């Protein structure tokens, strides 16, 4: 009975996949999605714009909506990808960067550190203007996934993986 | 749990001939990964079902209609997400030094921060405390306090050694948006890269000491500025154009000091600073500044001061490069020829690759030329110097630095010195 159930389930998934129904690419395992609350007035960022947001050089989505960065704690894969691809910094350089940024009075505080993807998405849902990074397969439906250079996670040209 | 309803639903939703279509390799790979994941999850479920006690039968919950959601409804904000104001944060920087030089007698214009002492020994660095606090989403306060060892800070005659406390920076800033931020307070004058990049955080800078043109206690450029500042940034087609425009009191009667307690004349100093950080060359910063003031020096004739400066910086560590130039023009108010003093430095460093990535060797060349006709800069040294050293990051928040310096001075013997520093943030 159990084998039959598995077999049916496999065939169903196979049939749906072969049908090629979805127009958008499915989120690929390993891609990091950039999620924001639905009221953030941005759907697409160039990679350079994303870098400016992450560096704290762009601090406003709009005049009445400030950016709040949510970054995973050291050890998380999301953090490693963000540091490697966007910041191009080591852990030590990243820490020094934000210490210096606050010391220069260019930002009142550094990114908020979150310890799980669940917390990241929960805070991203709750804080106006928050931006978080989660595994694309774990991105919740209530949040908006931003396109980077016009593409979503799952696309071959997607830069965060 | 039965999956029959799910399977039936999926089958009903299938297009009639979908199975006949072919899949590309990426799709097949995705399918294989999903099937593999199903296997893993089913094994895990089987393990859990085998180990956990069977729960008692649970009565089905009565049907409750879902609440109607409005478009303006937002999820409740968890406590951790609630902003609280003021949100005071503290950070500190300090350093401890050892210096040995072949200097005989006074250093003739170099300040205590340059550590050119005729005696070998230890020296306490500055203890700097940094405070930042958001008062609202758009209003922030920043402060920097320093405690510095001085030979004349104490009481008595001759004055005993001691410590001087100083409010280095105090800024209250209103951020309208990225393009426009207005602030008031006491700043490190934004006409020089080093002055606004490292402030009193010795740990942040690669080298033991600052370049002489921007040394604390020095006079070449006005290190502090008291007044108001407008600043902002715009994408500018990928150039990332940043600007500062300021109006303030300018130098005090002692020209190394800012006009903290008020201006010494009715002429405000003003400054303009622009720099770009192009997207295409991530890490590059290029900029320039102008500064204008009228100075009434203690015991001297009033002069008008123009400062033009430029910088180019590669902010990464493989390599790191900082180059700055400044020209200071002094023109007597009562007439007479203008005099021009120049200073520049070029510093390069390189973070070594693994397994030596904690090491960062560096080199800096400095040059400062003060014409003898520049009466206002009579106490500023003219020299050329080379600094070679290495930084070792003992942790993410502390470093050792060892450097050798050679100064060739105009009409004076050269100076050689070795300097060791441990600097840290906390």
How does the SSE layout of this entry go?
The complex is a heterodimer of chains A (161) and B (426).
Chain A (H helix, E strand, L loop, with lengths): L1 H18 L12 E5 L7 E2 L1 H8 L5 E3 L2 E2 L1 E5 L4 H11 L3 H13 L8 E3 L2 H10 L3 E6 L8 E2 L1 E2 L13
Parallel strand pairs in A: 2-9, 5-6, 5-7
Antiparallel strand pairs in A: 1-7, 1-8, 3-4
Chain B lengths: L3 H10 L11 H27 L35 E15 L19 E16 L2 E12 L11 E14 L5 E8 L4 H5 L26 E11 L6 E8 L20 E8 L7 E12 L7 E12 L5 E13 L6 E11 L9 E11 L13 E13 L2 E12 L5 E11 L1
Antiparallel strand pairs in B: 1-2, 1-16, 2-3, 3-4, 4-5, 5-6, 6-7, 7-8, 8-9, 9-10, 10-11, 11-12, 12-13, 13-14, 14-15, 15-16
Number of strands of chain A: 9
Greatest chain-chain interface?
Answer: A-B, 51 and 66 residues
Strand line-up in the sheet with most strands of chain A: 6-5-7-1-8
Structural class of chain B: mainly beta
Order of helices and strands of chain B: HHEEEEEHEEEEEEEEEEE
- Whole-number average pLDDT of chain B? 86
Helix percentage range of chain A: 25-40%
Describe the oligomeric state of these chains in a short phrase.
heterodimer
Low-confidence stretches of chain B: 1-23, 52-73
Query: Number of folding domains of chain A?
Result: 1
CATH topology of chain A: D-Maltodextrin-Binding Protein, domain 2
Write the element-wise H/E pattern of chain A from the N-terminal end onward: HEEHEEEHHEHEEE
Over the alpha carbons, how many angstroms does the gyration radius of chain B reach?
31 Å
As for the CATH topology of the domain at 178-425 in chain B, it is: Porin
Under the CATH scheme, which architecture of chain A would be assigned?
3-Layer(aba) Sandwich
Approximate shape of chain B: globular
Describe this structure in words.
- The complex is a heterodimer of chains A (about 160) and B (about 425).
- Chain A has helices at about 1-20, 45-55, 75-85, 90-105, 115-125; strands at about 30-35, 45, 60, 65, 70, 110-115, 130-135, 145, 145-150.
- With about 160 residues, chain A is an alpha/beta fold.
- Chain B is mainly beta and about 425 residues long.
- Chain B is built from 3 helices and 16 strands.
- A 16-stranded antiparallel beta barrel of chain B has the order 1-2-3-4-5-6-7-8-9-10-11-12-13-14-15-16.
- In chain B, a hairpin with a 6-residue loop joins strand 6 (about 225-235) and strand 7.
- The relative contact order of chain B is 0.11.
- Residues about 1-25 and about 50-75 of chain B have low confidence and may be disordered.
